[in-house]
């Protein structure tokens, strides 16, 4: 089902009711446009996701990027009445600890109206570092949130030309090359040359459009396998 959005102002909070598939492309872009349209009037947004029956990695990344944008501008983005499918995605990627989805519109609106920061999760750094490279800001937002909740310090760049600098400066435990780097042969070879002893994960071409929890689980398994391999 194509994504439809219905927006209602409740005091200083905008609640956006989403219905259908929330996926990379026009659907994620329409949600982004709706939030950007609302931002001059309010920076407090609630997404009601009771009727969202599918979300992919790219669209979840778009929500994470908008979450960070609103937070940077003193605002909030909250989720409520998430569908069983979305709840399973949030739990499997550990992002339920970031969003703390509310059971009802009313609870989310009250919480969003209150001053002060969102409740946060104290992340415990493990000393592991990851460098992620891809042209998509949405995909990088997804990777950052996913890996941070697996204990990584995460460094991201949209520019493959910066990769060797990032790697030299951070000495990461793993380098992740997104789908958008697949055609950048010279840049990829430069990354491989600058990280000969560092595991490299190249994400598949359909990573952004894969169901978000499956994509996250597969990536976590691949990284753990590489890190556990004998040196």
Question: Would you give an account of this structure?
Answer:
It is elongated, with a radius of gyration of 18 Å. The strands form 2 sheets. A 4-stranded mixed sheet has the order 1-2-3-4, sandwiched between helices. The chain has a 4-stranded parallel sheet with strand order 6-5-7-8, sandwiched between helices. It folds into 2 domains: 4-113, STAS domain (Transcription Regulator spoIIAA, 2-Layer Sandwich), CATH 3.30.750; 128-228, 3-Layer(aba) Sandwich (Rossmann fold). The model has no long low-confidence stretch (mean pLDDT 87). Helix 7 (163-170) runs parallel beside helix 8. The protein is built from 9 helices and 8 strands. It is of the alpha/beta class.
Helix and strand layout, with pairings?
Elements: E1 4-10, E2 13-22, H1 26-38, E3 44-55, H2 57-72, E4 76-80, H3 84-92, H4 96-99, H5 105-113, E5 128-133, H6 137-148, E6 152-157, H7 163-170, E7 174-177, H8 185-194, E8 200-202, H9 212-228
Parallel strand pairs: 2-3, 3-4, 5-6, 5-7, 7-8
Antiparallel strand pairs: 1-2
Helix pairs in contact: 1-2, 2-6, 3-9, 7-8
